[in-house]
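Friendly challenge for the regulars: who can give me the structure tokens for this chain first? No prize, just bragging rights.
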Amino acid sequence: MNLLFLKVTLIPTVIALVTLAVRRWGNKIGGLIGSMPWTAGPILLFFLLEQGKAFGIHSIQGTMTGILALISFCLSYSALSRHFRWLPTLLLSYVIYTLTILFVNYLKLGLRVSYALVIVYVLIALRYFPTPTERPSQVRRLPFDILIRMSVATLFVLLITGLAAILGPNWSGILTPFPIMTSVLAIFSHLLQGSNAAIVTLRGLVIGLLGFTTFLFLQAFLLNEFSIPVSFGIAFAVNTVINIIASRIW
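First reply, four minutes later:
Bragging rights claimed.
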């Protein structure tokens, strides 16, 4: 019951804070902040507490596959958003996301290879990422948009952690970085500010994946040596430093 309470309080609080950060510091910084392990971190934590440390560590390999697909989602959404409204853009991007997962999962890559591949893919994606044609339009907001974002993200976390025992560590890990927060950020940016805002937000998120992926990769080793709070604390600090450096470079 305590874990359930944590799920329905922690996740919506995080989503609300990330949304406010986007409004306060803009789409690029908001994307960077959104790429931090606000959702994947708690999901991994719940795996560890509910399914055991071995399950949680094993799920990290699947998460790397999910991150590769997430990069494909960000690239495709950014490119397609220039030509379509948010719904067809989202659906087509989900198709590309799914195809990426099926292909990478078929390859059965090891953790270190997957991590290296994610880093290389991020760098390639940033090299060829769509460039906004103009500044994002004036911000518009839907009624109750923060509440909508909080509800969607919370339901997703409840679903993934609830089905973990059925899905197993590999597919639980693959679905952990499912672009739920990314979709929410992209859709609302696209709908309310236009394609350019979505591109800026998603590019910021891809930049942040350098730190996000490192956070998860480190857990596969830190969790064998340290307690969960210490492992998460060390990796989160590394994640933050990488994000700060990456934001200055790109």
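The CA atoms of residues 135 and 196 lie 7 Å apart. The mean pLDDT is 86. Your move, everyone else.
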